[in-house]
Amino acid sequence: MSSVSGSSDFVLSFDELSEPKIRTRIASIALGGSHQHTPASGAPPLIQIDGASGQPHALMAIRSAVRLHVTGSLGDYSLSYCSRCDVRVDGHGGHGVGECLSGAAIRFRGNAGHAAGVGMLGGTLAIYGSAGDRLGAAMSAGELFVRGDVGGDAGVSMRGGTIVIGGDAGPRLGEALGTGTIYLRGRAESLADGMVEVGLRKRDELRLGMLLINASIRGAAKEFRRVIPESLWRTEESRHHGEVRPSWR
User: Fold this and answer.
1) Region 208-218 average pLDDT
2) Strand partners for 107
3) Residue scoring higher pLDDT (41 or 89)
4) Is residue 132 part of a domain?
5) 195-198 and 10-13: which strand pairing?
6) What CATH number has the domain bearing residue 101?
7) Structural domain of residue 192, as residue ranges?
8) pLDDT-derived band of residue 37, with 50, 70 and 90 as boundaries?
9) How many structural domains is the chain composed of?
10) Is residue 5 included in any domain, yes or no?
């Protein structure tokens, strides 16, 4: 995940422009249609967006190669259906933020509500506070990070991808029918049926270490455990011991 930092190339404000007009300006800047200067470094333009105060549905479907630095909090379903953009939000997010991401890199410096990262198809969503229930529900790919605690049913209907939880989790963590992986540092109130909590393999420790670095999250990978389907764990164990356990399905 690249960093959104440095001097802004453009400044927009919710106090001066409506949300649809801000999205139109972002698209215009990405296409080089603005009369303001463009970055000499070759990096995507860095756009600072001021005046965020919990607006719902804000900055949805941003699919341009831009970097956004939002000052303030965003409301429900903000930054959903995004791709290609790199976003830092210096504030909180409402319910459903980052829904159906497909390639964006988004960071919230505060907390998020329920259903963050639902249906993710790719990309990265990092929440540096805590998150509510149904985190990453129905996600099929991508990487979802929460530095703090999460609520119940995290990863429900998850088919793939990675969830990293730095704190504790509520009840019914995980989804036994998918191939996704959950890394947990704290404790889960309970696991979903068919899920088990196991230690990290060496390759998991290396992979998780890189993920934490890329998401700018402090912590040692060895402090985490994996929460995976029991069927996957049994397959791993049989391979480790050289056993052959045919599947009749």
Assistant:
1) 87
2) 88, 126
3) 89
4) yes
5) unpaired
6) 2.160.20.60
7) 10-240
8) low
9) 1
10) no
